[in-house]
């Protein structure tokens, strides 16, 4: 069976994944701890924790709240900063067979561009995922991902700053991801990944205060899967018609091979496993094995036969 997936085909630094199963940003750190407890070499790729220009301490505790069929988190992009990532983690990644894609986050278009520039040519860095679910300090704190114009500006700046494959991770909080997906595609993205978390909250009944402590958090996990699947389907239809060279990567509540296959049939060439990693760090491997079993049972030789199979 052929499970390989190519991102950024035709670019100087195209990215070939051995299979379509990836780990999502923020759910496996920088991969080192994960590599000690699960078979990281069997995965298609991992996406690093969100990384900024300078170190960030993140938000106040409590930062997480388990809810029915999901998880609220407001970590606040705690990370050691790009220079530490390049110095401490990239040399280790360069020894792995599994490619590592670095998720980047900035407060201005210029910060995104500088992050991309610093990652250019770094051994161990296979690609960039651009987190546009960040506040734009020059637009009164409005999230970049809410505006197609802002998404296009960030994508173009990153594209001009690197030859690495560029994936733009889209926010679902606009309700319709098609305008921002198209904006990213037209500005030079090689792929779009969706969805990021949905904004939500809970209440601490004893303290009578919102949870997480930040006030709101991002909802992930099985609760968001149907919505994520719908948005992936819509974006895949839109891009197939208007930007057919841009790939779609599905994210949102995937816990099983059946979930992953639904996203693939909805038009995703690959999927990312997120919150499920906290329940079972081997979820990615189990999902891969389930995809292989489905293909064998149905006589499918190439995963490409399943990509978009449910699209009109």
UniProtKB/TrEMBL annotation:
Active site: 134 (nucleophile)
CC cofactor: FMN
GO cellular component: cytoplasm
Catalytic activity, as annotated: (S)-dihydroorotate + A = orotate + AH2
Domain Dihydroorotate dehydrogenase catalytic per the UniProt entry, residue ranges: 17-295
GO molecular function: dihydroorotate dehydrogenase activity
Any Gene Ontology biological process: 'de novo' pyrimidine nucleobase biosynthetic process
Alphabetically ordered keywords of this record: Cytoplasm, Flavoprotein, FMN, Oxidoreductase, Pyrimidine biosynthesis
Note accompanying the cofactor annotation: Binds 1 FMN per subunit.
Positions contributing to FMN binding: 49-50, 103, 131, 169, 195, 221, 252-253, 274-275
Known pathway: Pyrimidine metabolism; UMP biosynthesis via de novo pathway
PANTHER family given in the database record: DIHYDROOROTATE DEHYDROGENASE (FUMARATE) (PTHR48109:SF1), DIHYDROOROTATE DEHYDROGENASE (QUINONE), MITOCHONDRIAL-RELATED (PTHR48109)
Family: Belongs to the dihydroorotate dehydrogenase family. Type 1 subfamily.
Protein name: Dihydroorotate dehydrogenase
Organism this protein belongs to: Thermogemmatispora aurantia
Lineage of the species this protein comes from: Bacteria, Bacillati, Chloroflexota, Ktedonobacteria, Thermogemmatisporales
């Amino acid at each position: 069976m052929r499970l390989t997936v190519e991102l950024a085909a035709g670019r100087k630094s195209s990215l070939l994944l051995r299979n379509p199963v990836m780990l999502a940003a923020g759910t496996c750190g920088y991969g080192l701890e994960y590599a000690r407890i699960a078979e990281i070499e069997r995965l298609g790729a991992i996406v690093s924790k969100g990384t900024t220009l300078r170190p960030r301490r993140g938000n106040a505790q409590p930062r997480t709240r388990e809810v029915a069929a999901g998880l609220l988190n407001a970590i606040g992009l705690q990370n050691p900063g790009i220079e530490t990532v390049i110095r401490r983690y990239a040399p280790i990644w360069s020894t792995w067979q599994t490619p590592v894609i670095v998720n980047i986050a900035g407060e201005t278009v210029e910060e995104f561009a500088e992050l991309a520039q610093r990652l250019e040519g770094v051994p161990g860095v296979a690609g960039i995922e651009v987190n546009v679910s960040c506040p734009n300090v020059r637009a009164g704190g409005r999230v970049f991902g809410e505006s197609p114009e802002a998404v296009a500006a960030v994508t173009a700046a990153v594209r001009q700053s690197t030859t690495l494959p560029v994936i733009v991770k889209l926010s679902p909080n606009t309700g319709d991801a098609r305008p921002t997906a198209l904006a990213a595609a037209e500005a030079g993205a090689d792929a779009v990944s969706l969805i990021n978390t949905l904004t939500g909250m809970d209440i601490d009944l004893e303290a009578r205060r919102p949870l997480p402590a930040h006030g709101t958090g991002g909802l992930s996990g099985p609760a968001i899967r149907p919505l994520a699947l719908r948005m992936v389907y819509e974006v895949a239809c839109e891009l197939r018609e208007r930007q057919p060279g841009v790939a779609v990567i599905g994210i949102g509540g995937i816990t099983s091979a059946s979930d992953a296959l639904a996203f693939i049939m909805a038009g995703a060439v690959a999927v990312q496993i997120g919150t499920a990693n906290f329940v079972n760090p081997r979820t990615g491997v189990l999902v891969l094995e389930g995809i292989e079993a489905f293909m064998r049972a149905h006589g499918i030789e190439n995963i490409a036969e399943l990509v978009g199979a449910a699209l009109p």
